[in-house]
Amino acid sequence: MRTLKICGLLAALAGAGLQTARAQNPIITTQFTADPTARVFGDRVYLYPSHDILARPGRGRVGWFCMEDYHVFSSANLTDWTDHGVIVTQNKVPWVQPDSYSMWAPDCVVRNGKYYFYFPSTPRDTTGGRGFRIGVAVADKPTGPFVPQAAPLAGVRGIDPNVFIDHDGQAYLYWSQGNIYGAKLKDNMLELASAPKTLGELPTKGLKEGPYLFERKGIYYLAYPHVANKTERLEYATSTSPLGPFTVKGVLMDESPTGCWTNHHSIAQFKNQWYLFYHHNDLSPKFDKSRSVRIDSLSFAADGSINKVVPTLRGVGLTSARQKIQIDRYSRLSAQGAAIAFLDTADTFRGWKTVLTNAGAWVQYNGVDFGQPKLRTATLRGTSAAGATVQIRLDRATGPLLTQLTVPKGGAWQEVKAPLAAFQPGRHTLFVSLKGGTGAEIDWLRFE
Ligand code: FUB
User: Fold this and answer.
1) What CA–CA distances, in Å, run from 215 to 194, 220, 268, 307, 413?
2) Residues 32-68: tens digit of each pLDDT
3) Which one of the listed residues 68, 209, 232, 255 is annotated catalytic?
4) Which atom of ligand 1 is nearest to the CA of 210?
5) Is 296 a catalytic residue?
6) Which domains, from first to last, does the chain contain?
7) pLDDT for 257-304, tens place per residue?
8) What is the sign of the dihedral through the CA atoms of 138, 144, 150 and 153?
9) Pocket lining for ligand 1, CB < 6 angstroms
């Protein structure tokens, strides 16, 4: 019944021209997405990322960032995302150089029922100097239609706009250009109300950009990517007021272990849990200017400091047992004989597979919701050259055996089914292991 309802909803969204996707990390697998600003409006999370595309001769600068427009996505559970389509594009903003492909990191806030979308880009008019400016587009709904202002914000030069509205209603704009700057905004959200202030207590060596300011329990947190060593890591500073002075507190996410040079983030609380939205080049491991948004949970220590976030593939949210469970977005893998790989290296958007090569090798996937109505069958999409037996256990590597599936010998991908030995309602961790055979590759699992 619930599946039917979800299928009906997905069909209705598709009929309305909206694309939907389900994923763990990265959360959007239909296009590249970067620089995620997540905002909670009502009972949904809205994601305003940059949209990386590949440059080619005549389209942007080959080998560099290339972005021509912005999409907005939304979700009620951080797992199922709806793409509401393009909201702002470089060809339709009066002040933007239309072939600059420089629609970099944006933000969006709501005030008095109007949604203000802030974005940087290259201006047509460079008489006041070269470099990025920041503009605003305004809408009545978080998904638009957004109407761009005719001119960029006066007095602001730089990238990565971020807006914070304090409890007293005062709005602040932050941005970066070497340093990080902040200024008050007028009530109209379209003009500065104070001169830009350099937030000078931050590290002076190494690029800083991508400011994101939020408040919790009277502490103002300013988080920012900073190149302290080789690539960007996420650091933060705190203050008792929105424009500082700030005290540098530490690192909230380390540098990418695989060398993605940028990171860019936002932090949001949704249904009593804090989350870090950030990016990594999951779908483009050889070119780090094509990035993808991820989400992981974030928590605070008793003294208000942010506990360092360790990136995961599993990400956040529950996965319904009735959906395709992409166990390659694992929580843990056995030390030997288990790995992940792209299904098709020529088309990374097709996703990944889990490769189990040794008997006993396993993959753990947390947070699967089996619900209440009894499920009877497991389906696995897999392949095995010599044939393999795969076991699925609940909750522990030695936990109850839920089912055992046989992947027949042969190179082709196939869906195999097996009955469930013991159905257990509710939320469980899955342990998927290779019982016998010389190896198996698994695309997904599902229960009916
Ligand atoms: O996406 C282009 C730029 O890369 C952003 O503006 C920076 O924050 C970095 O993520």
Assistant:
1) 21, 4, 10, 16, 50
2) 999 999 999 999 999 999 999 999 999 999 999 999 9
3) 209
4) 8
5) no
6) 23-298 (2.115.10.20), 319-447 (2.60.120.260)
7) 999 999 999 999 999 999 999 999 999 999 999 999 999 999 999 999
8) positive
9) 34-35, 50, 65, 104-105, 159-160, 209-210, 262, 264
* 448 Cβ contact list (under 8 Å, min separation 6): 322, 375, 376, 377, 379
Q: Of 353, 271, 284, 278, whose CA–CA distance to 311 is shortest?
A: 278
Burial 261-283 (b: 16+ CB within 10 A, else e): bbbbbbbbebeeebbbbbbbbbb
Considering only CA atoms, which residue is closest to atom 2 of ligand 1?
A: 104
Probe residue for ligand 1, chosen from 159, 212, 232 as the CB with the greatest number of ligand atoms within 8 Å: 159
Give the span between the Cα atoms of 118 and 293, in whole angstroms: 19
Tokens of 170: 């005062």
Angle at 337 between CA 336 and CA 343, to 5 degrees: 130
- CB of 364 within 8 A of CB of 430? yes
Q: By CB neighbour count within 10 A (0-12 exposed, 13-18 middle, 19+ buried), where does 125 fall?
A: exposed
Q: How far is the CA of 8 from the centre of ligand 1 (A)?
A: 37
**Residue 209 designated active-site:** yes
Measured over the CA atoms of residue 198, residue 211, residue 251 and residue 280, the dihedral's sign is negative
Q: Are 433 and 391 in contact (CB under 8 A)?
A: yes
Question: Is the whole model's pTM more than 0.85, yes or no?
Answer: yes
Taking the CA of residue 279 as reference, the ligand 1 atom at the shortest distance is 10
Three-state SS string across 90-110, please?
Answer: HHHCCCECCCCCECCCCEEEE
Distance CA 238, CA 249 (A): 7
Distance from C-alpha of 224 to C-alpha of 239, rounded to nearest angstrom = 14
Report the greatest alpha carbon distance in the chain: 73
Closest protein CA for atom 4 of ligand 1: 262
Dist. CA 237 → ligand 1 center (Å): 20
Which atom of ligand 1 sits closest to the CA of residue 159? 6
Q: In a mutational test of the pocket of ligand 1, which residue from 104, 231, 266, 278 has the highest number of ligand atoms less than 8 Å from its CB?
A: 104
What per-residue string of b and e applies to 301-313 under the rule 16 or more CB within 10 Å gives b? Answer: eeeeebeebebbb
Going from the Cα of 415 to the center of ligand 1, the distance in angstroms, rounded, reads 41
CA atoms of 318 and 243, how far apart (whole Å) = 38
Instruction: Extract the tokens encoding 184.
Output: 């008050």
